Amino acid sequence: TMRQKKEASPDSRPPVIDVSGLHVSAKTLSPGAASRMHALGRASTIRSVPSIDDSESGPESRHSPLASSVNSTASTTSAMSAAAAATAASPPLPDRSPPPIRLKSDDVTSPPVRWGARAVRASEPPPASYVRDVTSSPPPEGLDPDSSGQWDSTIGKAGLGKTGRVINKLVSDNDALKRDIQIERLRADEAKQAARLVEDKMERIISDYEGRLLEASVTKTLLTRKERQVETLTAAIDVEKKKAAAALEREKNWRNELEKVRGDSAAQIDEATSYAALMEGRYKAISSHWRDQGDEVKRAVTRIRGEISTIVEERRSDDDKIQTLRDLCDQQDSNIRQLRRERDDMSRLFDAYKQTQEDDLRGIRDEARAREEEQERILEESRSALAKLKWALNVKENVADAQ
């Protein structure tokens, strides 16, 4: 490469003239070339100054059309400065002196250079830390402001011509567009973050909604189950209430019978007591009158007491029989109900059987009637055919002209 060749032969380089931080070979410049470069420098007054944006000094920006034009402008400017340094010893021309350039500092380390066309070394864009601040000097008196040119932070003397103004405008528009793009990117990032937050919130809401739906479904299922249980328990309670009402009714009947038996027993006991008192009075009367018949009276009393005990035992057995009869009545009642149901079933089955028999008989009658009509028709046809056959056999006798 060119850099390796330069490093391999450092003694073969031509002497370099350093003018205002620009390295130009003085050996390769002739007076005619210097004058031509001076005229070219007056025509092209835009000097390449690196942009503040680091992205423009990258490899992509160096290979862009704007970078190539800037590099060519830098080459011509370097050549112009070298020509001005070479002709510094000669008397200056009145109308060909370049406009004055003021640099902020002259002790800045010179940037690396590269060899260009016509043995002119154009300096590489210096790093951001070595960029020189270019200030605009007020134009001298009697000089047109447009001819003096204002230095721009990006392009240089961009106000000298239409091209400079266009480039300056394009650069400013490019910076504004970059800022707008950065703002839009930030807005897009914020919108994405907001959309992501909204999506997370929607997912949480959906999961919460699904959980509540599941909980509502489970609650509804449990409520339905409880309602069925309540219905079952209500039916069981109604059955138990009916059983309790029937038991209360039976208890009431039993109590009535018990009171009735107690009343009858009390009446009989009173009657027996009165009868015993009467007998005792008689016994006393008899014993007073007939002391000798005391044994007979005692036997009579003993007999009466035995009769009373027998009556009491009979009443007790009657109570047991009444209870047994009551149980038998309940059993017979249930049997009667069962028999009634069976009778109803038998009546229903008999009615169904009778209806079936009537339907079958009706069908048989209809079939017999139809069969009889068919037989009558066949007999009628047979009679008619027989009569016709007889007439045909006796045609000679019936028809006079028949042979």
From TrEMBL:
<feature type="compositionally biased region" description="Low complexity">
    <location>
        <begin position="67"/>
        <end position="90"/>
    </location>
</feature>
<feature type="region of interest" description="Disordered">
    <location>
        <begin position="1"/>
        <end position="158"/>
    </location>
</feature>
<feature type="compositionally biased region" description="Basic and acidic residues">
    <location>
        <begin position="1"/>
        <end position="10"/>
    </location>
</feature>
<feature type="coiled-coil region">
    <location>
        <begin position="174"/>
        <end position="243"/>
    </location>
</feature>
<feature type="compositionally biased region" description="Pro residues">
    <location>
        <begin position="91"/>
        <end position="101"/>
    </location>
</feature>
<feature type="coiled-coil region">
    <location>
        <begin position="322"/>
        <end position="385"/>
    </location>
</feature>
<keyword id="KW-0175">Coiled coil</keyword>
<protein>
    <recommendedName>
        <fullName>SWI5-dependent HO expression protein 3</fullName>
    </recommendedName>
</protein>
